[in-house]
Design goal:
Two copies of one chain form a homodimer. Helix content of chain A is 30%, strand content 36%. The first copy, chain A, contains five helices and eleven strands, in the order αβββαβαββββαβαββ. In chain A, helix 2 crosses helix 3. The radius of gyration of chain A is 16 Å and the shape is globular. At the A-B interface, strand 3, helix 2, helix 3 and strand 5 of A face strand 3, helix 2, helix 3 and strand 5 of B.
Chain lengths: 191, 191
């Protein structure tokens, strides 16, 4: 998605060779006009998949999920990162490893909002090692829900998550794939 | 806001006398059409306030903030609930007491995205004791930003936060105010 690549090139900040900060427009401050374009692009990519729910993980996936869901005309369900006292007992759960914090956390989703009748579009802001995505795929499997599509804003192509998902035949589309990056610049994979 | 009151009455679930679950449409599963209407209503209430940013706290405020921000044509900035390794050092911070978990947590916001040039609309899903809102007000004060409005989806009118804010002269509008509730039903405050 050219608009997103241009925005990453202009406003993204690379720290070392691993960290890309896009917090001026995607996951701390949010440019809602850009989000609308991301929502339209995800619809263009997955409009034939009979999507019934858009799912993601709190917190930075929520804005992207809402932007997509309003174009699809379906609800969002977001997985929560810790068991809330108010979430109830009937939940799907999966363990996710955070490479940022080097620790594990649980994600949970109420069984009321995802079932074998659903075909989901999974969205997230980043895909690197794929840990969060594997957690969401596990929740879909527990629910018996079909994965109609996986839409990622920014894939770190130099980390293994994306290529592993493609090798498994999962319907993954990343709107921008970073082949390499340094403080001198960012190179995108041609798609 | 009649549409929201009707939805709460239909799909909200009261547990005991304190807990109102709206996770089927507002803060776990999200009805994005309802969000759009909430965004329009917040615009109607605060459109003359020269709003430059919509701010909230992750996670459940993000969807509401995005729905409002797209109508105002301004960015969202959401406060994060823990210091992220990637957020940088130049942050505003405030301590918030969680009554749900009976513990304190910090909220943080990068100083890059809020300044004395901003007039903000603060939004959130719930207002009960006002702890989260006081944290956001503290961040606005640290930034020197003007509070143009506070827009809450559901105020628990039988808890003190909302009336305290109004007594201070803060520009608070709650789209639905619950006067009392029990498992038998919900009574809304006439507005």
């Amino acid at each position: 998605m050219k608009l997103l690549e241009e925005r990453i090139a202009r406003d993204g900040r690379v720290i070392g060779t691993e960290i890309l900060k896009v917090d001026s427009f995607l996951n701390h401050q949010i440019d809602v006009q850009l989000l609308d374009e991301i929502g339209k692009e995800l619809y263009r990519l997955f409009k034939d998949k009979q999507i019934t729910k858009v799912i993601t993980i709190e917190a930075s996936g929520i804005a992207i999920a809402c932007a997509a869901a309003r174009v699809f005309g379906v609800p969002v369900v977001f997985a929560k990162k810790a068991r809330s006292l108010n979430i109830g007992k009937d939940t799907y759960t999966a363990k996710v490893h955070s490479f940022t914090y080097d620790s594990d956390y649980d994600i949970t989703m109420s069984q009321s909002y995802l079932s074998a009748d659903d075909t989901v579009l999974i969205v997230d802001d980043f895909l690197a090692n794929g840990a969060a995505l594997r957690g969401l795929l596990s929740i879909c499997e527990q629910a018996g829900a079909k994965v109609g599509g996986i839409g990622i804003c920014i894939e770190k192509g130099f980390q293994p998550g994306g290529d592993e998902m493609r090798a498994k035949g999962l319907p993954l589309e990343s709107l921008a794939i970073i082949e390499s990056m340094s403080e001198e610049g960012i190179t995108f994979r041609k798609q």
